[in-house]
Design brief:
By secondary structure, the chain is α/β, with parallel strands linked by helices. It contains ten helices and eleven strands. The strands form three sheets. The protein has a six-stranded parallel beta sheet with strand order 1-11-8-7-5-6. β9 and β10 form a beta hairpin. The structure holds nicotinamide-adenine-dinucleotide. Nicotinamide-adenine-dinucleotide (NAD) binds next to α10.
């Protein structure tokens, strides 16, 4: 018997389109005589994963005509010195966006640092003022990963109005803002947020027309948890051992991709799904911080 497999939502392709749109907007902005948007990325300590993420962000900025500078500090940078640096960047009219690469060294209070960033330059959307605007549906900066998922849904023609959406994960970076974006007027999904204490999780997931997994556990979402035809968005990035690879590992999502694609209507791959959208939306946020417009 022939089985239909889900259509693949190609995050790389959608992200490339968004990046081209940002570039066109930046070109139009500078053609009017404005300087290019400027993003400052603060990288503290030598974590190789963080350094690699930052390199990716810098490359994407350069391609879109956004100037980005990485300010690198040793892991022993004091909290007071970091706060002074942020104050200086907040007051610098030649800086549009500020991104503090997480995680921070343990001696630095992350919440205090994120609150110190000017909300207008907070391209990661971690400041409580921006989080508040997100919840109340005010226009403004949006957190990159959930905003990227909204963009994917829209550009893939996935209907949110009247849809039942289930988000697995309640982090401040993904799960909670995701639920808040889906429930806004005009998007109109009916949203349930699941977490590690949710009873009958599989039952809840099976009701979802849109299922978003942001857990951090390889293969957590299995085919029996998915309603036939559902759109399944996999946020997870997990390393699993793979002796056939030179690195000894490969990246997989939170969804058991091969089995779930036989049931779902749409599915995002890992890699090549949500990840590329996150960087594209950072560019969009930097454009907005610089110009006050999304296009
Ligand atoms: P987190 O660790 O902060 O949150 C994980 C959430 O999963 C928690 O809210 C927890 O309640 C829930 N959870 C854990 N075990 C569970 C269980 N057994 N049943 C139900 N819920 C459970 O993680 P995060 O920052 O939200 O990231 C989640 C995943 O997404 C990670 O793999 C991360 O690497 C990835 N991520 C990817 C991107 C991207 O751009 N693609 C961006 C951010 C995070």
């Amino acid at each position: 018997m022939e089985t239909a497999t889900a259509s693949l939502i190609d995050g790389r392709q959608i992200a490339a389109t968004v990046r081209q749109e940002v570039k066109a907007s930046v070109d139009a902005w500078t053609a009017k005589g404005h300087r290019a948007p400027v993003l400052k990325v603060v990288l503290i300590g030598g974590d190789p994963a963080s350094a690699s993420y930052v390199r990716g962000k810098n490359r994407a900025c350069a391609e879109a005509g956004i100037e980005s500078e990485t300010m690198t500090y040793d892991a022993d940078l004091s909290e007071a010195d970091l706060l002074t640096l942020i104050r200086d960047l907040n007051g610098d009219p030649n800086v549009d966006g500020i991104l503090i690469q997480l995680p921070l060294p343990r001696h630095i209070d992350e919440a205090k640092v994120l609150r110190a960033i000017s909300p207008a330059k907070d391209v990661d959307c971690f400041h409580p003022e921006n989080v508040g605007n997100l919840v109340t549906g005010e226009p403004g900066l949006k957190p990159a990963t959930p905003a990227g998922i909204m963009e994917m849904l829209k550009r893939s023609g996935i209907e949110t109005r009247g849809a039942t959406a289930v988000v697995i994960g309640r982090s401040n970076i993904v799960g909670k803002p995701m639920a808040n974006l889906l429930v806004q007027k005009g998007i109109d999904a009916t949203v349930t947020v699941c977490h590690s204490r949710t009873p009958d999780l599989a039952d809840v997931c099976r009701r979802a027309d849109i299922l978003i997994a942001a857990i951090g556990r390889a293969g957590f979402v299995t085919a029996d948890m998915v309603k036939p035809g559902a759109a399944v968005i996999d946020v997870g990035i997990n390393r699993v051992e793979d002796p056939t690879r030179k690195s000894g590992y490969r990246l997989v999502g939170d969804v058991d991709f091969n089995a779930v694609r036989e049931v779902a209507g749409h599915i995002t791959p890992v890699p090549g799904g949500v990840g590329p959208m996150t960087i594209a939306m950072l560019l969009k946020n930097t454009l907005f911080a610089a110009t006050g417009s999304w296009s």
